[in-house]
Amino acid sequence: MPDIWSLVRPNVKTIVPYSPGKSSQEVMEELGLTEVTKLASNENPLGPSPKAVEAMTAPKADHAYIRKKGLSLPLPDGIGQMGSDLVVPLMDAQGQIWNRQSISPSGEKMFLSGRKMGCFFEIDGEGPHVYVVEGLATGITVHEATGSTVIVAFDAGNLRPVAESLQSRFAGRLAVAADNDHKTYGNPGMNAALALAEEFGIPMVCPPFPSEEKGTDWNDYAALYGIEKTAEEIGRQMDAWLADLKKRSAWVPWADVDGKGAPLRTSGNVRILLRQMGCSIWYDTVKKQPRYEIPGVEFASDNRENAFLSYLLSESYRH
Questions:
Q1: DSSP 8-state secondary structure symbol assigned to residue 263
Q2: Could you tell me if 193 and 114 are in contact, meaning their C-beta atoms sit under 8 angstroms apart?
Q3: Alpha helices, DSSP H only, in 70-215?
Q4: Distances (CA, A) of 105 to 66, 89, 125, 228
Q5: Residue 245 region, left (φ>0) first, then alpha (ψ -120 to 50), else beta?
Q6: What whole-number distance in Å separates Cα of residue 153 and Cα of residue 160?
Q7: Longest Cα–Cα distance in the chain
Q8: Taking Cα atoms as reference points, which of 94, 125, 121, 124 lies closest to residue 109?
Q9: pTM of the predicted model, to two decimals?
Q10: End-to-end Cα, the chain, rounded Å
């Protein structure tokens, strides 16, 4: 029986094993430093070069991608143009920018080497719902159709990490606006959105296309039927989801239950309870305090927080 090593190709034998870089602690001890900023391993906390940011201009109306997608100027704050490419920042839930996506005139999309998982681009809006979408053009279209805040996750695989990171901030408000990859085997866009909607118990809206159409997302739907029809279809699907929820029961299945099916005292169940109560929670940046609103329920302004917690506790015991 031949020696296994003799079967290895000569060029493979010359490959040097990977040697991991030194940790920040090792570098500080070796060089006598008290602080080190790690720029490798997709962990750059400094963000992009200020010179690169200064080189960006506002997106131009004649950009081929903007024209092709039928997007209206100005584009949402934060999007710029560098040379012939659109540039979109990716940030985490704390507002730290980790990466940038470039979009060429032909629609080719590329990322820098930084972190992408769990990062997103936010289009600020108003209204009770916050839609999580895959692509930028889809996000801009959904925002234009609904006026709502939209979160761009950049691809189907990032929908769940992004939604999870924003679950507390947008408790009871998240919805997913799916891609409909009906021409792709397995329809990955819709399946990823369905899994997210089922796991988090949130609404999902998906653009309906005839089998002969090649469209896959809400931007394609708007190009075919117009923005008003797009708004109507999203609203119709949201209303149908809420009506179906009421028909099934006043409550979605609890996230965490004991052996007898009774709900446990977990944060996941509290989120479900808050959503079913129609509760909105946000942080008031002016008064520097959390704010709460429940449709049909009034809280005394001088004791609002305690009154809300007492109401929530009573509802928890009732259910």
A1: B
A2: no
A3: 136-146, 159-166, 188-200
A4: 8, 18, 27, 27
A5: alpha
A6: 9
A7: 86
A8: 121
A9: 0.69
A10: 71
Report whether pLDDT(233) > 80.
Answer: yes
Output DSSP code: residue 256.
S
Phi/psi at 54 (5° precision) = -65, -30
CA distance 206 to 116: 24
Would you tell me how many other CB atoms lie within 10 Å of the CB of residue 243?
Answer: 10
Q: Which residue has the tokens 């950049």?
A: 154
Question: Across the chain, what does the average pLDDT equal?
Answer: 85
**Which residues lie below 8 Å from residue 2, measured CB to CB, with a gap of 6+?**
none
| Integer Cα distance of 34 and 209 in angstroms | 59
Q: ω into residue 74 within 30 of 0, thus cis? A: yes
Region 307-317: mean pLDDT is 72
Which residues on adjacent β-strands are paired with residue 176? Answer: 132, 204
Quickly count helices (H) and strands (E) in the chain.
11, 11
